[in-house]
Amino acid sequence: MKIIGTPSEYHLFVMISMKYPRRKSIIASMLPVITAAFFISSCSSVQSQKDQFVDVDKKVALHDYSSAAITLEASKDKSYAKKDRVLYFLDAGLLNHYARNMQKSNDLLTRAEEAIDELYTTSISKGAASLLLNDNVMDYDGEDYEDVYLNVFKTLNFLQQNQFDPAFVEVRRINNKLSRLKDKYNKIAEEYNKSDDAKKKFTVADNQFNNSALGRYLSMLMYRADGKYDDARIDLQEIDQAWQSQAQLYNFPKPDFGKYLERSGKAKLNFVSFIGKAPQLFATNFTIHTFKDAVAIYISDGKEEKEFDVIAWPEMTSGYHFKFSLPYMEKLGSKVARVSVELNGSTYADLQTIESLENAAEDTYKLKEGITYLKTIIRTVTKGILNEKANKELDKSTGGGLWGELTRIATSALVDASENADLRLARYFPAKAMVGEVEVDPGTYSVVVKYYGANGQLLYADDRGQVSVTVKGLHLVQSAYLN
């Protein structure tokens, strides 16, 4: 890791020590502080970079998921800090799923789930103590949609191994997590609001995501395969309810499930396909200017500022100016416009979207945006004022002047750098899930899932080999194109 300080800055420190020999001892004693400022600034910038994933991403773009998983695992010590272990388990677990290493995928995703549970319990117990800690320096405890959808992939892993009982357990976990999602943030907000540092009441946005059509779809297929048609019918009703009660999440046509529970005597072949990549986080820059009994927050592009918010802050004085950044979520979408299924060289059906994971990610992220926003402001102002007070004391001991200005710049750089936005997210969740079903005579079929772009061009043909189907049981073909 490189120190941000340039050679010219280093020479400047040397020149100061030569020009002011009486201050040599002061400079020598303060140099570690300056170095630490530059070092921490460097570390903070690295936290927002994702260059270390370039090689893995190239392999994912080429659909070589096995090599991508191997490359990720080989570089885990360089790409993931100890505080990022949840991210590693998620990324590696998903890549192993796409590579069809089902048991390994489940082992990694289970470790992610256990760590998320452990870290959530810890965060509640710490409560308001974390108000003054930047999320970047804390253990990554997973986004809510990651915690929910990891169970979808565990379900699919078990189904690929024809293990229905543990697959049902995973589906139930999806529903349980969604049912308690808002309560989770109400507890966090309650803890934060108890803090003396809370200048404005934390509130939790309304949670819209409470029912996963994809989770219900997998449950319905399993119940149908077990011959439990009444239970399967309940799941179909829940899928309908997802469209009726969560229109902002399911803002696309509902797939046609009209024949799913008909007993035709034919074999049923089902498909689940994932396309695109789930959203990633990017940084927006803000500045804070203090006034008597208030702070004003401005959005900044580096050239101009636009007023964003004003917060009452009793006993605040005028004249302080601070910088910070906040994460915002941006959808990456997909190049795919159509997914079709070919059996023995003939097109049988187009798959239909059943779940927008990117919509769910965006919606659940809003639950904590208000808390992240207010925490960051409180933390930035508190640390900034403490830094200003420390600089005044330093001016008294050094006599101010050029040295005082240098130390002021360095310590301010440290404070600003420590307020980089936390941009951590798992990288290999898909943007959307698509499903479909075809009825065929029992037998063996060569199966190819084809992905087409907006202009009708073939983007990728996923040859799934020979698939044998019978009238009974579940025959589920899984495919992915993460572009």
What does this structure look like?
- The protein has helices at residues 7-19, 24-47, 54-61, 65-74, 76-79, 85-98, 102-126, 144-160, 164-179, 181-193, 213-225, 229-245, 357-398, 401-417; strands at residues 267-275, 280-291, 294-300, 305-312, 321-330, 338-343, 346-350, 352-356, 432-440, 443-452, 458-469, 476-481.
- The protein has 483 residues and is α+β, with helices and mostly antiparallel strands.
- The strands form 3 sheets. A 4-stranded mixed sheet has the order 8-9-1-12. Strands 4-3-2-5 form a 4-stranded antiparallel sheet, covered by helices on one side.
- A hairpin with a 2-residue loop joins β2 (280-291) and β3.
- It starts with 6 loop residues before the first helix and ends with a strand.
Q: Ends: how far apart?
A: 32 Å
Give the ordered list of helices and strands.
HHHHHHHHHHHHEEEEEEEEHHEEEE
Share of residues in strands = 15-25%
As a whole number of angstroms, the C-alpha radius of gyration is 27 Å
Morphology: elongated
Instruction: Classify the helix fraction into a percent range.
Output: 40-55%
Spatial strand arrangement across the major sheet:
8-9-1-12
Largest sheet: 4 strands, mixed
Tags for this entry?
12 strands; 14 helices; disordered N terminus; four-stranded mixed beta sheet; 483 residues; single chain; elongated
Topology (elements, then pairings):
Elements: H1 7-19, H2 24-47, H3 54-61, H4 65-74, H5 76-79, H6 85-98, H7 102-126, H8 144-160, H9 164-179, H10 181-193, H11 213-225, H12 229-245, E1 267-275, E2 280-291, E3 294-300, E4 305-312, E5 321-330, E6 338-343, E7 346-350, E8 352-356, H13 357-398, H14 401-417, E9 432-440, E10 443-452, E11 458-469, E12 476-481
Parallel strand pairs: 1-12
Antiparallel strand pairs: 1-9, 2-3, 2-5, 3-4, 6-7, 6-10, 8-9, 10-11
